[in-house]
Amino acid sequence: MRELNLLLRQQSGGNLYVEENSCREVDPDSVTPAAELDSDTSDNYETLKLELVNVQLEEAEALEQHRILRNNYALLEVVLEHIMSHLECVIIEIKSSSRLAHFLNLYCVQERCLDEETSSLLKKLNQINNVSSLEALKTQLICTINNRDHIKILNEQFEEKYNNFRLALKNFKIILEILNVHNDSLSKLKKQFKEILMDYQHCRCILEREYPFAIAEKAKVLLDCLTSLGESYKYFKDESGILGNVFRNVARNIQENEYILVKKENLLSAQCSTANS
Q1: C-alpha torsion angle, residues 39, 40, 42, 48 (rounded to 10)
Q2: Which of 155, 190, 199, 218 would you call most buried, defined as having the most Cβ atoms within 10 angstroms of its Cβ?
Q3: CA-to-CA distance for 219 and 79, rounded, in angstroms?
Q4: How far apart are CA 73 and CA 228, in angstroms?
Q5: In the 8-state DSSP scheme, what is residue 209?
């Protein structure tokens, strides 16, 4: 049993048949040389060729519009992913600075090298360490980034239908150029192509209907992120400068505190003596 099939991936016209038990056997007389085609069949060929050209042009234009939405969505995803990376770095930096300030404070108290200016700077650093708003923003970002299964599934379906459409279009052109089939076979091929085209268009329309909502949702999250980060940086922008001043002050105090240096020298001498003995 042999029947023409637009979704076979062979390139040549002779390989565009598929063996299926459920298919009706093709009449050998349904394939004839071009010179023997009647005028009605010849007209159908030319009409179909024109229709395929029009479909190809229309779908190419529609695909360009589709890609605009798809690229906008993809760009938003990339921006949000990079904001997530930056946000994680900011949170780590703030927490690290807070812990460092805490232990520097303990050290300075222990070594009696904590002056009033350094104490004030360390206190400011401890006031900056509240990252709850950034943690909440991070949670919102994680939910948004992970909540893309629906669009992902639709994209996979679209790619499958799009590839079927391209293959059917290519094979239909090959058939019209190489194989000369009668009107009944042409009607079946035209019906199959129409079904493939409608499946592809339907899938594309669903995705194009969903994209604006997904883009709007991600754009809202992006707005929230930028707003929150902008507000947060009002409090965090001086952190590096404050920490730098703390480092310089503590280093100066240690250098000026002979007790610390002498104690360390004595400790090193004691360790050396123990090692030699």
Answers
A1: 160
A2: 218
A3: 10
A4: 22
A5: H
Sign of the dihedral defined by the CA atoms of residues 76, 82, 88, 89, in that order:
negative
Provide the pLDDT confidence category of residue 24 given band limits of 50, 70 and 90.
very low
Please report whether residue 224 resides in a domain.
Answer: yes
Find, among 15, 17, 56, the residue nearest to 185 by Cα: 17
**Residue 175 included in any domain:** yes
Average pLDDT, the chain: 77
Q: What pTM was estimated for this model as a whole?
A: 0.68
Residue 106's identity, in one-letter code, is: L
Return the structure tokens found at 38: 């009647």
| Domain residue limits at 134 | 40-260
Model confidence pLDDT, tens digit, residues 76-134: 999 999 999 988 888 888 888 888 888 888 888 887 777 888 888 887 777 666 678 88
Window from 12-16, 188-192, 230-234, 240-244 with minimum mean pLDDT? 12-16
Nearest-angstrom CA–CA distance, 250 and 240: 15
Q: Which two tokens stand for residue 196?
A: 């493939």
Half-sphere exposure (Cβ direction) of 211: Cα atoms closer than 13 Å: 20
User: Is residue 13 assigned to a domain?
Assistant: no
What's the number of domains the chain is made of?
A: 1
Angle between helices 116-128 and 239-256 (to 10 degrees): 150
Name the percent of the chain lying above pLDDT 70.
Answer: 73
Look up the CATH number of the domain holding residue 61: 1.20.1270.60
